[in-house]
Design a protein that fits this description.
684 residues, alpha+beta, Arp2/3 complex 21 kDa subunit ARPC3, Beta-Lactamase, 5 domains, eight-stranded mixed β-sheet, five-stranded antiparallel β-sheet, 13 strands, elongated
Length: 684
Amino acid sequence: MQKKINLFLRLLPAKNWQYLAQVAVISIIYALAGKLAASIPGVNTLGTCVWPPAGIAQAALLLFGWRIWPGIALGAFFYQTIGVNLSVSIGLVVSVGASLQALCAFTLLKYFKFRTSLVRLIDVVNLVVFGGIIATQISCTIGTFWLCVAGLVKWSEYWSHRWNWYTGDSLGVLIFTPLLLILYKSFTRKKKDRVPKTLKYKIGTALFLLSLITVSLLVFKSDAKVGLSGYPLEYLPFPLVIWATIQFGQRGAILSSFIVSSIAIWGGSQGLGPFIHKAENINQAILFLQAFMSVIVITSLLLAAAVAERAAAEDSLRQSEIKYRELVENANSIILKLDPEGNITFFNEFAQQFFGYTEAEILGKNAVGTIIPETDTAGNDLAALLSKILHNPKNYARSENENIQRNGSRVWVSWANKPLFDADGKLAGLLAIGTDITDRRRAEMQLYQLNEELEFRVEERTNALNNTLKALRVQQEQSERLLLNILPEEIASRLKQGNSTIADTFTEVTVLFADIVGFTQLSSCVSPTELVVMLNDIFSTFDYLAERHGLEKIKTIGDAYMVVGGLPVPRSDHAEAIADMALDMQQAITEFSKTHDRDFSIRIGINSGPVVAGVIGIKKFIYDLWGDTVNTASRMESHSLPGCIQVTAATYQILEDKYLFESRGSIEVKGKGLMKTYLLQGRK
């Protein structure tokens, strides 16, 4: 059996042993603290005015967690059954009440994010309210009720007994819970985090403890029968407690209040001190003592928390100021402050280096005339601009302007402006953070000048290009007109599209040849210039007639003129158009003879039929016609009579219904033999 027990103990994990040890230690401390509180000599009821186990129970759960509650239950059970010799049932009930009380306080404090350091005012308030007032209602209610049920306390004494139990637990929590939390924090603090204590500090602490103990003994150990006890001596320790709170923080507040409370309890238990003298009975003395301890403990805790919060706030403010000053002084930006009149009240180190002024030289001076010129190089009034910024800072959150350095150099700065207001909401000044943009501004100016120059050059080149394009268009138009004078419009378009070979067959066209009669003899009678002028006048008239009738001039050879109808755009009335032009040509020659006082006449030959049309040559190319129809038309002209229009039978058959003809009969045509021809007289 012993071997099995040893094996079981070896198998238990180390964590379980640690947990069991904690439970055992807490139960022992709980029971001993209760025994010590009940063993104070003198008035027994005064011994219960403070119940340390209640404070120990709450501190244990806050430090080690809720799983330690069995230690509280065991400690309460052992004290009630062994220390007070109560029954097991009463011991169980009291242990349950003590455990529930500690667990309730732990749950409420954790819910409100309680910190065991007690450095926040809210933590002290939560401990007083939830730990010292609310949770302590549990144990006194359950315990007193069970004592009445067991007959150990009369029902008529229920409320008075419950009150004594409640106040004892409350004071135990208020005195011992903070004390244990602070002591545990001090013992568990790492050595590297501990601040070495100087000799002066140690001597001061010793003198304070000596003074506090001396004053407390003087107050609470005074004989109640001596006249000195009639004075309000209980207030004498307060200045020392307050001084300890301010000087040493939470530790000073808790330790000093613990010392004063302990001496007050000790003196009262021996029938000494001001509370015994002033009370009419022992219950009233207990009430006075409890009220005193409550006031001194709560006051010291609240004051310590307030001092700690203020110290933390001041430390945070100092750290913020240090960081702010380091940031401002080491920032690579100009940072300055102006008052409402524009005087400089702050000038960081970077600004001093940038503008060339020391802090002593620039502070108190107006920005205009020192770092801001009266006007910039463009003539803008910068003094007026600064006045607008100071009067309406919200409208100038960002601004850029020219500034001046001490050596006279002009620089550009981009400013971010933030108005500063006092407690009354009035403008107290302006915080301005500047960035040097001189290089950027110069680059922008150079870029602007380059853009201006580029725009001028582009405009100049554009104008030159437009002039060139205009000249090219003029030349192109001239070339196109020249080309159209040589070729039909459709053929010219095809050539421009890249067609290198143009040859088309037309099945129905009418060809006209005209020749000036006696031109060879005329050329020997007039000068060449006059001859060319007359020939140009005649052919220009023929060109006009061809254009009017929608015909295509093919070419001129000497004094011969060739025109065709029905190509390059086919038309059904090609023969009629040629006939009308032939009649108009005769009329034009008649009028020309009258104006020039010379007798001119022409021979005209017309034939209809198929031809082949195309462009030949690569230089001085020409649009020409080929085929028997062309040759026959040429023969009609050469075999015609002066002043007559001779047509073939093919043309006659097309026009006989609309025009008047005279049959010439059959004539011998070179290369053709006999051909029947007709002379066109006019329209019907």
